[in-house]
Every structure is written in structure tokens, then in C-alpha cells.
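Running log. JK asked me to keep both predictions on one page so they can be read side by side. First protein, sequence followed by its C-alpha cells:
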Amino acid sequence: MTVVTLSYGKNGVIKKCQANGHADFSKKGSDIVCSAITILVRTAMQVLSHNENVLLIADASSRGNLSFAVEAKSENPQTETQLICIGDFLRTGFQALTKEFPKNVILMED
């Protein structure tokens, strides 16, 4: 099972995303649930990496663990909006996965 934890800051901006464990929906290398989790997190990281006002610290150093921490380097309404939207994107995607695959994904938020 994969446990996904999303952490938020002021005004609902995303601060941290952690996905730990294997979904165990299918065999390693062909697990659609693990693939979906990976796509959600990596897409969020790619989008955030293009914002020069964002400090992004990502960790994909081991299989089954993918995480990032993010913060704005300075106050900027556009960056705050982007961080809120990325958090909404991740929450929506992971809620859909937990609904469809409740034995494989757990979403925790703080």
C-alpha cells in the first residue's frame, strides 16, 4: 500500500508531498496505481521547477519513495496561486485514486 501525505501552509499552499510504499495492485513494473501516483507527483514537481520564485527540494532516491518540499522564496500572489493550485491538483488526483483503489492508496492531509 502507498501512503500519500500532503501538507499545507498558510492559505492552503502546498508545502510537502510524500508518497511512500508500493501500491501492490500488480507486479512491479506494471502497476497502474504506482504509475498514477508517480505521474501526479512528478508532474507537480515539473511544474514547480519552472517557477524561479520557488525553492523545490525533491527526493526520488529510492523506489517506492517520492517526495518534495516547496516554499516561495518571496511573497508573490502568482506563486501563491500556483502553490494552491498544485495542492488542489494533487488532492483531487489522490482522492480519485483512493476512491477507486482503496486497498492500494491512503491519502493523509495535514
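And the second, directly underneath as requested:
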Amino acid sequence: MSGTDKAKNKVEDLGGKAKEAVGKATGDRDTENEGRGDQAKSSIKDAGEKVKDAFKK
């Protein structure tokens, strides 16, 4: 996995955590759920990159 991909995934994960926190603080369930979704997407992308790395070896 390239460093750029790792950084993008980490930024997306942190953004998702921030959205989730804002949603909880304001009582906005849509924002909270969107944040959780962003975190899930980041995790899936991370896993996909790890699989690609495993096949490169």
C-alpha cells in the first residue's frame, strides 16, 4: 500500500469520526450515520489495499 493511499484512508477515517462526533453532539442522526459510513468505507479500502499488497509479494 502506498503512503498516499494510507494517508487518504486515514483522513477519511478521521473525517468520519469527526462527523460522527458532531452528529452525536447536535443530535443529528443523519450526520452521525454518515460519519460511521465514512469510517466503514475507509476500513474497506484499507483491507482492499492490504489484499493487493499480499498478491504483489
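Observation for JK regarding the second prediction: The mean pLDDT is 91.
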